[in-house]
Amino acid sequence: MTGKQRESEFRFLAEPADVNFGGKVHGGMVMKWIDQAGYAAAVGWSGRYCVTVAVGGIQFVTPILIGDLVIVRCKLIRTGRTSMHFAVDVVARDLRTAEERLATSCVIVFVAMEEGTPAAVPAWRPTTDADRRLAERAQKLQELSRAMEDQVAHFGEPTDPSSGSVAQAQRGLTACRPKSAAPKP
Ligand SMILES: CC(C)(COP(=O)(O)OP(=O)(O)OC[C@H]1O[C@@H](n2cnc3c(N)ncnc32)[C@H](O)[C@@H]1OP(=O)(O)O)[C@@H](O)C(=O)NCCC(=O)NCCS
């Protein structure tokens, strides 16, 4: 069955427990659903345990409301040696009107694992122009994501030892500690 099912779908109702202080579904809950649906799709494609390695281009377009039918659609758009890239759309359907709204979209990347190390996955090869374009976009997104990850990795670094953010954070932590716990001079 591995390497066969490229598209999959989760469907369920948005429940009161999913809601935030503003009465809409938590962004974190939507990310959990994306991760779960992506995990199921990745394990189904690879036949192996998989881990999430990256999420790219996530956008929260419209809110999801309690009682909406939530549809999480995953479509494989690229495979590497050990990685699988899925385009994910989260759609909210108002059951009374059948109106559907795109709530969130992103690309989520999973890596198949075997005994703690990345393992090969069945290759997906695009055969239509539309799929070739999707695969190219996934490749481009990966390059952009890597560049952004590189930028983010440097946010915590001090620009110089006395004025950087790490030094500031350390000063802040010291200031917040109770006097008895403060380091001795
Ligand atoms: C996933 C993990 C094993 C990859 O380890 P690694 O040392 O980077 O391994 P590799 O360099 O061999 O990369 C493995 C694959 O991941 C891909 N990858 C690694 N980092 C990536 C990133 N930031 N974005 C997209 N793909 C990435 C590589 O391109 C490679 O894909 P390929 O084999 O198809 O070319 C490691 O990063 C990890 O354990 N991460 C934590 C995962 C996790 O805890 N997830 C949350 C809970 S499930």
Show the helix and strand layout.
Layout: E1 7-13, H1 27-46, E2 49-60, E3 69-79, E4 83-94, E5 99-114, E6 117-118, H2 129-153, H3 165-176
Antiparallel strand pairs: 1-3, 2-5, 3-4, 4-5, 5-6
The structure holds coenzyme A.
Task: Describe it.
There is one protein chain. Strand 4 and strand 5 form a beta hairpin. The protein has helices at residues 27-46, 129-153, 165-176; strands at residues 7-13, 49-60, 69-79, 83-94, 99-114, 117-118. The protein has a domain at 7-128: Thiol Ester Dehydrase, Chain A (Roll), CATH 3.10.129. The protein contains three helices and six strands; from the N terminus they run E-H-E-E-E-E-E-H-H. Helices cover 31% and strands 32% of the residues. The N and C termini lie far apart (65 Å). Mean pLDDT is 88; it is low at 167-185. With 185 residues, the protein is of the alpha+beta class. Strands 1, 2, 3, 4, 5 and 6 form a six-stranded antiparallel sheet that branches. The longest helix has 25 residues, at 129-153. The structure holds coenzyme A. Residues 51-54, 80-83, 109, 111, 118, 142, 145, 149 line the site of coenzyme A.
Structure at a glance:
This protein has 185 residues and is of the alpha+beta class.
